[in-house]
Amino acid sequence: MLRSALLNVMVGAALKAGRSLKRDFGEVEHLQVSLKGPADFVSAADRKAEQIVMAELMKARPGYGFIGEEGGKIEGTDSTHTWIVDPLDGTTNFLHGIPQFAVSIGLERNGVPVAGVVYNPANDELYVAERGTGAFLNDRRLRVSARTKPEASVVGGGIPHIARGDHVQFRNELKVVQSRFAGIRRMGACALDLAYVAAGRFDGFWERGVHPWDMAAGIVLIREAGGFVTDCDGHDNMMLNGTICAGNEPIQKALLAAVKEGQRG
Description:
This protein is of the alpha+beta class. It has helices at residues 5-31, 39-60, 91-95, 167-178, 190-198, 212-224, 238-241, 249-263; strands at residues 64-68, 72-74, 78-89, 102-109, 112-120, 125-130, 134-137, 140-141, 154-157, 183-185, 204-208, 228-230, 243-247. Strand 4 and strand 5 form a beta hairpin.
């Protein structure tokens, strides 16, 4: 695929941060047996990866704003563009030596996600998309799945954990989704889950309590792969209300209906 200058900057930043994470991931296994454990080490790896991404992006586009999971929000002189970055999505997976984590970099223009990169350094899968040019996995064009029947479809979802999210609401939604879909998966890294929808691996995905940096890149990937993305109310307010429901057209519609029914209890 031919990449724009902006997309090349994003890919370069993701790959550089990914190399750092891959080296650190190789150390996590050894730290599992230590008394202190790997938590502090992983936090440092996360911060280091964000610093790498920020340095690369700011060098190329110094006026753009920046929103990062670790570093918060930085206002830019160019108010129309903002980088939205999760340097290590899937921190708990990383902490436990599970190779399902990613660097996620999104670019927002006038409040709309227009480009995205999701990179899993553990298996060297690089997902890229830019508005109007399609979505790709390691230069292979992506399309969302062609399945139309929920009973033949597998969807991903986020499960709220201790001290986070509305557990009762999730269980109500899960009960309805379970009754209509062939399978449900919880992989532990929202950015990769959304990339899997774009790649047709998941037929759909829903989650609540999602931060902008978890989904900015994934939204572009799915839309450029021919999919549909809304919040869990069916509107285009994912980045504001922190909910997301995605898939190909019929599955996204069916999943959204199931989630709404679950909301009502």
